[in-house]
Amino acid sequence: MALPHVMRKAEEKMRENARRHNENARPPRPEGQVTVEKDSKSTRSNSDGDYVDFVEIKD
User: Fold this and answer.
1) Residue 27 Cα distances to 6, 22, 24, 34, 38, angstroms
2) How far apart are CA 24 and CA 38, in angstroms?
3) 12: enclosing H helix or E strand
4) How far apart are CA 59 and CA 54, in angstroms?
5) Gap between the Cα atoms of 36 and 13, Å rounded
6) Block means of pLDDT (10 residues each) for the chain, length 59 residues?
7) d(CA 24, CA 9)
8) The model's pTM
């Protein structure tokens, strides 16, 4: 008997969370624009960054 009520409440909560998430979403950036954001919680002292090994793939 209580299951429909619980399901309805869960749906309402999910919709509200999705609505709040969409309100906080950033506007889309133009194609090709790159933005680098730094995590303010980062406490690394090495400012050189991470080494990333890669292999170039030829078309």
Assistant:
1) 34, 10, 9, 14, 19
2) 19
3) helix 3-24
4) 16
5) 33
6) 88 93 77 80 65 84
7) 23
8) 0.39
